[in-house]
């Protein structure tokens, strides 16, 4: 019997995208919290505390200077929480959404990033399927983004408030 699809349909890939170490090397920061951390042992984030999927980082208390690389398919609640927290760095998609417009208007600095390869699970060495941005809240974040841009000038465009 002829079939339209000879091969099975692929299941949806995971949304887990882990930030490579070179990003943190260029930022030159240690964070107080990563509330959207991958499973223990996988993360490259220099941080003193993590919340994983099992901890439900959205509902846990956030403190200090935060790193947030959220699940891209579910970015809205993470973006809202990050903006309300107001201290740290966000790596996420440039989305056609209300939250991205608000974050662009309210962040103290941002880098419009060139595509780069993530690490981990199904995204290892795969480039993002969408444009990315790093947003910073607070003077510490602005300093980190300036350092990032100085050390990785070909990685994107730095925008800061006048």
Helix/strand layout:
Elements: H1 21-27, E1 34-37, E2 50-52, E3 66-68, H2 75-85, E4 88-93, H3 98-106, E5 109-113, E6 132-137, H4 139-151, E7 156-160
Parallel strand pairs: 1-2, 3-4
Antiparallel strand pairs: 4-6, 5-6, 5-7
Helix pairs in contact: 1-4, 2-3
Oligomer: single chain
Strand content: 15-25%
Question: What is the CATH topology assignment?
Answer: Rossmann fold
**Would you list the SSEs in sequence order as H and E?**
HEEEHEHEEHE
Rg is: 17 Å
- Total helix count? 4
What can be said about the biggest beta sheet? 5 strands, mixed
Structure report:
This protein has 162 residues and is of the alpha/beta class. The protein has a single domain, classed as Rossmann fold. It has helices at 21-27, 75-85, 98-106, 139-151; strands at residues 34-37, 50-52, 66-68, 88-93, 109-113, 132-137, 156-160. The strands form 2 sheets. It has a 5-stranded mixed β-sheet, with helices on both faces. β3 (66-68), α2 and β4 (88-93) form a beta-alpha-beta unit. α2 (75-85) runs parallel beside α3 (98-106). 31% of the residues are buried. Mean pLDDT is 86; it is low at 1-12.
